[in-house]
Amino acid sequence: xxxxxxxxxxxxxxxxxxxxxxxxxxxxxxxxxxxxxxxxxxxxxxxxxxxxxxxxxxxxxxxxxxxxxxxxxxxxxxxxxxxxxxxxxxxxxxxxxxxxxxxxxxxxxxxxxxxxxxxxxxxxxxxxxxxxxxxxxxxxxxxxxxxx
Length: 148
Description:
By secondary structure, this protein is of the alpha+beta class. The protein has helices at about 45-55, 60-65, 70-80, 85-100, 110-120; strands at about 5-15, 35-40, 135-140, 140-145. The chain is built from five helices and four strands; from the N terminus they run ββαααααββ. A hairpin with a 2-residue loop joins β3 (about 135-140) and β4. The chain is elongated, with a radius of gyration of 19 Å.
């Protein structure tokens, strides 16, 4: 499901010159730019998916262990600017498959750690991650959980 737009989705700010698209000073940018803020409502899966799969939103295990919330929030900000809604929906589905153990991936441990950080920072409810030591086995077309 796509993130929903708020009832008042856009806030218009002041017009500025000599700033880049992010509002940072840039002397070569002479065209006037207006600050536009968009409010979106994201689920746990939508945040996790953007953080896991948006190219350039680089989070490392050390970022999660250090408790650096600003790094995670900054990565989400970047991911929201870079990811279109269709890709974000695909990212959310893939992230939840990995997080819940429905899809085998070397990202699962990182996804579970990132999920804990997402819940702590943003206050969204996460589904219960699989128990430690749980592995997946494919049997025909059905997936079964096996204790490792």
